[in-house]
Amino acid sequence: MDEILKINLEGFCAKDYPIIDVEIDCETLWSGRVAGPITITHTISSIGQHCLSIRHRDKNNDTIVDFAGKITQDRHCKLHSIEIGPQTFSINEFSRFGIGYLCDDGEYLITNYLGKTGIFDWKFDLPLWKFWGDLQNL
To answer: What is the rounded distance in angstroms from the CA atom of residue 61 to the CA atom of residue 15?
Structure first.
């Protein structure tokens, strides 16, 4: 049996939109600029371990600041949610279990704001009852 995986992203522009690569189990699902809201949908096996990777790449110095140096626009992507079958995972679940975003500069953030160049890696087991049990043991 299979599950439907949905990744809900939204890109925000400064001088350009963010470039995002999405992979599941080392298979590229999507790669390109995220200009506004998008949903990436893919079918995955309902049994076994999976690894989802969302990478924000090639961020240049494209942040727009005002005369005082305050950021007025920043190229970034928001990870609104990840859906696996009927279950929706958001920043609340990721923060509760310490699943975060590893920036290329080494900073590890618990956030759905993919602003720096970096990667969100999430390994999870299916079926979902096994996944929830694994999380409880973290």
So the answer is: 9
